[in-house]
Amino acid sequence: MIPFAFYLFAVLITGLFLVAVLSRNVLYAMTSLAAGMVLISGLFFILGADFLGVVQLIVYVGAVMGLYAFAMMFFDVSREVRETRSNPWLVFLLGGGIALMLVVMFAAPIVGDSVKALYPPVAHTTNPQAVGLVLFTKYLLPFEVASVMLLVAMIAGIILAGRKMEISLSAMDEDILPETKENA
Amino acid sequence: MLAPISVNLASLNFMTLSPMLIAIAGALGILIIDLIKKDLDKTLYVILTVLILFIDLGATLGLSLNDRGFFNLIVVDGVTILSEILILLASMLFVPLALTSKRFHEYSYPEYFALFLFMVAGFQFMVASDNLIMIFVGLETASLALYTLIALHNTAGSHEAAIKYFTMGALAAGFFVMGSAAIYAVTGSVELYDIARVLQERMDETGLMVTILGGAMMLIVAIGFKVSLFPFHTWTPDVYEGASSPTAGYMSIVPKVAMMVVAIRVLGMYIDLGIDTVRNVVIAMAVITMTLSNMMALVQDDVKRMLAYSSISHAGFVMAAIALDTTKANSSIFLYYTLFLFTNLGAFTLLWISRHKDKTHHVRYHHPYVKFSGMIHVEPVAAVIMAIFMLSLTGVPPFSLFWGKLYVISATVDAGYIWLAVILGLNSAVAAYYYLKLIVYMFLMPATDKTRTVYNNRSLALEIVIGIAVFATVTSIFYVQPLMRFVTALISASGY
User: Do B148 and A119 touch (CB under 8 A)?
Assistant: First the structure.
């Protein structure tokens, strides 16, 4: 059961990410990326890491949703998207398949109890506790450095998108003073 | 329910963390100063940044050797201390290049200096750990800040450079993570000493070799992108061309030193375990890198692009030493990069001084060879200084890089790779052609009317930086021996 589930998920994830890379339509690529992200959480559920599975769902699928918004901005909305395949049976089969897959994934921890971990977590802890234990002792430092990284990304984002970038002092002559009304 | 965990504060060994904390605190301080009072002059921030880096250097020198801290995540060994000194030294010489006489966009932001300090902290985390997660987080912090520093120059070229570097960097980060994951899958650990122990036990399991090698190759690809080895070097000339000269000069030294430290730790582990494929791949990449980039440098029209290819070729030169993995080879890497730091910094600073707002001599390039023609008749001192840097990059004695090349080649011979030593020597000879080309332009070509205004961006601060660089390049013969002894002592003290 477990190897089968693993290979099923693996093949589906690879397939979906291939679509994400190869598709010429941004919306298809985004959708298959989101679906692939959902299925990756299935792998976590099989391993009995339900906490990480849920984090995967919330963080990554959430991030893809954010990406969706950006993709929509690049997308020519006025153009009509015509589906080449409109067989209702296909829609039914795919939709039903996805629903079934979600059920299987959330049921996976039940099956997952029979897996023997090579490096078992600390005894008598639940999954979030085990993650917290490792994250806030051993890996406290990378956790904090990651927060510095996010701070850097935030500063970078703010100043690169700021109004001061609209005029380039590098290309402008000295004697021309830029208008200093903006406070960006 | 879980029993409460108590961690002894002394066991965390906060001292090992002090250099990075100083840099981060300094960066936050700069952001706060900007919040309190706007429109302060950039000189304040420059001096403040140099001061913080100086304190950081003091904290680094105060570290005790072969110490570990923070649940073994931070490692203070000879390699850490040496590379941190090198990074801080390069940064301290780089920051004053902001004090140009002309106005450039990036220096109008106080955040520029904060990001710069965050980047230094990121590099320090990267070199001070043998935990793959920690290395990755440090690398990404530093890279994100660096992409922004490039883009802040705010010209079309610098935007292009930042986007190219960002895309390539993201790809490299992906390779690094997947390689780490493959290693974790085999060994169940992300700490190099643990990985080495488990790999040692599992080496005979033939089925595993694919995974072990796969992980190693992905890490080599990630390292190759950041150090700019063939075939992952393609971004380098474009990014150097678009970035401002100081940033390009900085990129040719500090990120590469940091990634080479990772290479010494990671690839050194594989080579110590006797996995010869890794060594052969690295040697092959090193040889192709320096040969190919030397060929490419011959046909460049722009001095900055030529220096970009030259820095690729120097990186290949040093990668050959990493593949040897002897104490002498590892020491020669640090010697080489210390000497390279001063020479390259000086050359890029001279380009920075000759920077104009608009492209005066060429439709595309800021620093074509023709710009420097007949320089000796107009600015004899500047021409001679540039010639000294070029001769040093070629490896002409007694200028500094000659000693670096000498030690690398002698380490190669000692390790028994005579053919590699011959290739290193031949490549240095080929490289002489394109370095001398600039000297020919400066000394033998007639001066044009435009030559008089080439050094447009000069200021006292830049002249002092060049003075330091010239001094270090010319007097290297006096300090190479003690420097090499110092480096070797630190390297061998921690068993590399």
Answer: no
